[in-house]
Design a protein that fits this description.
The protein is α/β, with parallel strands linked by helices and 448 residues long. The chain has 18 helices and twelve strands. It folds into three domains: 81 residues, Glutamate Dehydrogenase, chain A, domain 3 (Glutamate Dehydrogenase, Chain A, domain 3); 132 residues, 3-Layer(aba) Sandwich (Rossmann fold), CATH 3.40.50; 152 residues, NAD(P)-binding Rossmann-like Domain (Rossmann fold, 3-Layer(aba) Sandwich). Strands 9-8-7-6-10-11-12 form a seven-stranded mixed beta sheet, with helices on both faces. Helix 6 links the parallel strand 3 and strand 4. Helix 7 crosses helix 8, helix 9 packs across helix 10 and helix 9 packs across helix 17. The longest helix has 25 residues. The radius of gyration is 21 Å and the shape is globular. The protein binds NADPH dihydro-nicotinamide-adenine-dinucleotide phosphate. NADPH dihydro-nicotinamide-adenine-dinucleotide phosphate (NDP) binds next to helix 10.
């Protein structure tokens, strides 16, 4: 990787010193800083006014105990987090993750990414992220409800439709948002729909929110292909993960004429050469809360692979939609060897820095998550709009808005990459375009 501009290097070293042991947060900061050399050269006032230091320090970080009782009567203790990173563009906005790997460094990396992503949408939303090391997998509905109620009993003090608006992420879907919203409503005695997004359609949710991150990732990849005079039609696609983002990326890629031949979960991946059976995948994952082994058992011709990497399956388009750092340098080399032409990140930071370098050097069209997966948070902002006006839009209209937003993000990234001397580099485009917007707002609002 190229050396950082000396000003940026100095600031990065302070970030390392002040946030020890938070490897993912360091990685997220470095990925942004690596793009900003030409920006600070052109706009030295950003360095003089210490805008970068101000953006790297969250406005507020809350860590709390979450006690609850499991089905056997045992008292369980988890840790809850909410990192409110920046509200210069609007109320803090970003999901909650329930997964055993959650710690402060993970939440800070996600919150930091979120402020740039939200800026890219062009909508009035700041950035934050939260979650817990609670693992909903294998827990009964009652246990999940007990956990969510205890989590919200603390979180409610920190959120609100004009303050901080959480949504879902890994391990937090419609069921969890329902229990969280119910407890918020009960404690506050307010039907404040705009306090959480990802709600059910019958009680304040937006059409297309569930599908938005996966659809949006595919729309962004489609724009990149279009810029090269190509399309999804006839493409062979691999999608990692089999959760919310992955399922709807599969759905939209199939609608656009691609064949999706593989997807994964944390125990392995399935290869289904004739194309994934989406209805079966939804049944197994969304209805039965099962594993990909159940998909393979119910689908003649599908193979379950439990050792090795999904990125060794050859494809034209790769959509990493599971988790951070799941696509490493070896995986990138294998993808390039097999002729991949597009990689678009549905997940947050799924590609390591070394892997990103391999893909960019091979002239692969590469979309960073903060651009490609921004459709989820953008549709959350559309949900907030509908809640504020007590309205409910049609599926067609909402999807049209999402498509327009993704086209706008693509344009902004491509334009900013050109402006800062890196045409076709969407990493530089996403980081510079969002940074300039945030930095100007930081300057305008004074030292706060
Ligand atoms: P889900 O919980 O619905 O699905 C996550 C999927 O990723 C599951 O298939 C899960 O497998 C797999 N996975 C999780 N951790 C690992 C791991 N350590 N190794 C391998 N596989 C893993 O989450 P989402 O689909 O909502 O989120 C996926 C990614 O997209 C995350 O990075 C998230 O931050 C990002 N994202 C999500 C948005 C949203 O709207 N939901 C918005 C923008 C980004 P298993 O079930 O076996 O754990």
């Amino acid at each position: 990787m190229a050396a950082l501009d000396p000003h940026l290097q100095e600031i990065y070293e302070v970030v390392l010193r002040r946030n020890p042991g938070e490897a993912e947060f360091h990685q997220a900061v470095l990925e942004v800083f690596e793009s900003l050399g030409p920006v600070v050269l052109k706009r030295p006032e950003y360095v003089e006014s210490r805008v970068l230091e101000r953006l790297c320090e969250p406005e507020r970080q809350v860590i709390f105990r979450v006690p609850w009782i499991d089905d056997s009567g045992r008292i369980e203790i988890n840790r809850g987090f909410r990192v409110e990173f920046s509200s210069v563009l609007g109320p803090f906005k970003g999901g909650l993750r329930f997964h055993p790997s959650v710690n402060l460094g993970i939440v800070k990396f996600l919150g930091f990414e979120q402020i740039f992503k939200n800026a890219l949408t062009g909508m009035p939303i700041g950035g934050g992220k939260g979650g817990s090391d609670f693992d909903p997998k294998g827990r009964s509905d009652r246990e999940v409800m007990a956990f969510c109620q205890s989590f919200m009993t603390e979180l409610y003090r920190h959120i609100g439709e004009y303050t901080d608006v959480p949504a879902g992420d890994i391990g937090v879907g419609g069921r969890e948002i329902g229990y969280l919203f119910g407890q918020y409503k009960r404690i506050t005695n307010l039907y404040e729909s705009g306090v959480l997004t990802g709600k059910g359609l019958g009680w304040g949710g937006s059409r297309v929110r569930k599908e938005a991150t996966g659809y949006g990732t595919v729309f962004f990849a489609q724009e990149m292909l279009r810029a090269r005079g190509d399309s999804f039609d006839g493409k062979r696609v691999v999608v990692s993960g089999s959760g919310n983002v992955a399922i709807y990326a599969v759905e939209m890629a199939q609608r656009l004429g691609a064949t999706v031949v593989a997807c994964s979960d944390s125990s392995g991946y399935v290869v289904d050469e004739s194309g994934l059976d989406l209805e079966l995948l939804k049944q197994v994952k969304e209805v039965d809360r099962g594993r990909l082994a159940d998909y393979a058992a119910g689908r003649p011709g599908a193979t379950l692979v439990t050792d090795g990497s999904i990125w060794h399956v050859d494809c034209d388009v790769a959509l990493p939609c599971a988790t951070q750092n799941e696509l490493d340098e070896d995986a990138a080399i294998s993808l390039v060897k097999h002729g991949v032409s597009v990689v678009a990140e549905g997940a947050n930071m799924p590609t390591t820095r070394a892997a990103t370098r391999v893909l960019l050097d091979a002239d692969v069209l590469f979309a960073p998550g903060k651009a490609a997966n921004a459709g989820g948070v953008a549709t959350s902002a559309l949900e907030m709009q509908q809640n504020a006006s007590r309205d409910s839009w049609t599926h067609e209209y909402t999807q049209e808005r999402l498509e327009g937003i993704m086209r706008g993000i693509h344009e902004r990234c491509a334009g900013s990459a050109d402006e800062f001397g890196a045409p076709g580099n969407y990493v530089v485009g996403a980081n510079t375009s969002s940074f300039v917007q945030l930095a100007d707002a930081v300057l305008a609002l004074g030292v706060i």
